[in-house]
Task: structure prediction
Amino acid sequence: MTWETVIGLEVHVQLLTRSKMFCGCANKFGAPPNTLVCPVCLGLPGALPVPNEQAIRLATQAARALGCTVHTRSIFARKNYFYPDLPKGYQISQFDQPLATGGTIECESPERGRIGIGVTRLHLEEDAGKSLHDRIPGKTAIDLNRAGTPLVEIVSEPDLRSPAEARAYLTILKQILVYAEVSDCNMEEGSLRVDANISIRRPGDPKLGTKAEVKNMNSFANVERALIVERDRQVALLESGGRVEQVTMLFNAAAGTVKPMRSKEESHDYRYFPDPDLPPLVLTQKWIEEQHAALPELPEPKRERFMTRYAITAYDAGVLASERPVADYFEAVVGAGAEAKAAANWVMGEAMSGYNETGRFSVSAERLSKLIGLVKEGVVSLQAAKRVYPELVDGNEDPGAVAERLGLIQVGDADALGAWVEEVLAANPSEVERFRGGEAKLMGFFVGQVMKKSGGKADPKAVQPLLIGKLKK
Amino acid sequence: MSIGREDVLHVAKLAELAVSEEELPKLTEQLGRIVDYVAQLNEVPAGEQAPPYLAGPEKLTLRPDVVAPVPLARPPADFAPEFSQGLFVVPRLGAMEDQ
Amino acid sequence: MSAVDSVASAVREGRTTAAVGAKEVASRLEKAAALNASLNWSAEQLAAEAARVDGASPSDRARMPLAGVPIAVKDNIVTTEQPTTCGSRILEGYVSPFNATVINRLRAAGAMIACKANLDEFAMGSSTEHSAFGRVKHPDDPSRVPGGSSGGSAALVAAGVVPAALGSETGGSVRQPASFCGIVGIKPSYGRVSRYGLVAFGSSLDAVSTFGRTMDDAARVLAAMSGHDPLDATTIAQPPLVLDPPRRDLKGLTIGLPAEYFPRDLHQGVRTGLDRTIKTVKELGATIKEVSLPHTRYAVPTYYIIAPAEAAANLARYDGVRYGQRRVGPAGDLRALYQATRGQGFGAEVRRRILIGTYVLSSGYYDAYYRKAQQVRALLAEDFRRAFDAGCDMLLTPTTPTPAFKAGEKTEDPVAMYLADIFVCPANLAGLPAVSFPVGRSEGLPLGAQLIAPNFAEAKMLSAAAALEAAIDAAAEVR
Result:
């Protein structure tokens, strides 16, 4: 019997603002504990929240980038619960009137091809502080630097049908948010966090099964792993006649297991109500459109444009559009005059391996373009160009000069080539014999030998006619 | 409409307030009287659509994204009940640990 | 004559110094100790406050509207020098690391913070009997209450210790004690004065408010601290209050009398006091208009849903984690810390209100209570709007249903205590400015009348109230 998996994701993303959501403290990672705090984010008596305009702007841009409708009126609400890293005893969030609703994210499902995943809502809220359980023996220690960091929560519809789809969705979501410069989506620093709801049912069953919530996943790969483990757990349960309880499962990445939270899951009663400290957030449609217009070109439209404009494959376009610095570099190389297909190959090859190591492109687009031009014009061979490239890294020497210095300028004139050709033919009499006997495919061997002899400098296009002339004699 | 001891214990738990067995009967009685009293609002005709009151300005004024915290005249170490290595300290979370 | 203005002009003109005034205040505070009205103060701190004024350049001092004026501050307004206790064990010893906006503004205007004033715990109460530091006594009759929750501030002004004081209102906590103590209490429009640094009780209702011996005293202090504050998103973007000169008459004004505020069973003394006030209103040339505010009877139940609900959330921060008193129950874990800190740190009335507030917001009850209360609140505000639209410039009502009651009279019956606020809490629910002023005495106890005005019409309201103040002998027994 088969089962259908149903997954919905709740993603929390920290926004790239200078200051916190409701106070003037710096929004940054890694400061000494409890040094980025003020009356507001400490929850001191008498302190009041005032929202950060840039957080509203970034959330609006994120929402529009995900195809959501941004509402001209939304309400901040208090979500009440006690936790030591929640300074006020409530979190300022949005509840029944969120900033944005109803978007779609398109992604590539390994099983179903191209799919659209619904975005139920996107709302603004403040982050809590951090509880550290391993710092002081037998105690919990609280750092409130993170308290009040602006967050958006992005809730998907239960449209995902496999753990792999969940990963694909997250990959695209992150691409879009990073592109829009809304967040750095750095999971290690906690600026993107994922909670998943998963259930299984018989294919065709209109009713959803009882879901479990899975938490504590610190990478997209672990989201996929955790969801596979949880799905298999639910399948095994149901197939042995048991039933799924509504639980919260914590993923243990080291062990590759999920286990239910130790504490009894009490039904939460957050007692949401509109925050009386914050009047309604009212935005004009004009302002919303201005924020949308200020968005950069997003990965998907960029991919399509690359395919049509540069006549490159869907795969290449996808790779080049996946990150904004890569796409920008590619377009800069083409803009400097390089032929698009060759530029794509160079960017995805040599340039990308450097970028993956260092996070930047260390050869200027102009110089890479020049190098590509040298190959096209036959000044250097492709093989020689790949020896030139490492010399260009973090330097400013002209590619032509490097080729010259390394003696890699392609030799095309018959006199110089003629000598190498003579030497090769003289050194391989039996192959010459076989060629003349009809083994035409040996031409490749002779060209290769000449190239080798020339140290890569010979122009293969000029070598071949010379060889043919000599061999015919 | 009046509330009973279970209701009182439930909200006391939500509000993280210890309520002793001895005070429970009187507290239940007092809270019951208050709830009964405020429940007279049920007689006011106000449909689903009736708009709730909104205090203060009709819309939010936002703050520019500038790092300018209100300074603290004394550091957290001075007012925290327990503070060590730059951190607020509480007992191990126990039953709440996994949240 | 305004005490505030006479002190300030003497200090501005160099006829006296703030230091001299500070010493006098210290000795008056000592003499008034039996009232239990002041909490934290010291002669040293007073001297420091005076030094700031006396040390200012003469040209700066000449621009200080409150130069050297000593002001008592209700102890739910934070200051960095003295503890801010909110009258609660849970904050005992807590000294705020920042100042309230109103404190910064008053000091900039030259005022001296004389002392912190006792209050009902977290401003919850109508008698100042619910303070962890003991009840405040009525200056005229120690067996009676001064009203509340700003009873300490009211008693200090009524006893002549300070010419003016800050209180806070959520449901009448300044006007009601002003009426009980025979002084002036002004509650400004919601959004007129910053709440930054006022410890929150019911955030949509809270307003820093002022007491004065006279209308002028209370009004000058209010004007000095009013105006938009970028740290409080609920302040209105309007310039500070500019006072009108006091009126000599009320010609051209229409004063509404809402029928619901004059019930048949109104206390006889209060009724007589109001009758005399209405007569004066007419004599001063105003037109009287009978109006109806039909939802008035729902004001107190509406208030006792909204204020506790907001309070339950606002008081969640007192959890013993970051500041204040911490207690840990036998289990020794975090829950034991929360429950003991809050269970033992809060007094009975605060605990009742937290529980009620939690209840009305809890799952399944929100719509029936909180949402319904906000809808009824809109109807109450609409009642007022209609009365003003019908031509009333302001409304005249009694401030309280009775004069000051005996201590202990209502402590066991919360609902009876709540009804002491029946005439004052509607202005908080509707966000309107209102002022209580003394209009006579009944069996020796002060009586107050109240004017309620449209939003942001403080200047007009206060100049009219000044005319009535001048025309009425508030010391006289009404008959």
Observations:
- The longest strand of chain A covers residues 113-126.
- The longest helix of chain A spans residues 220-239.
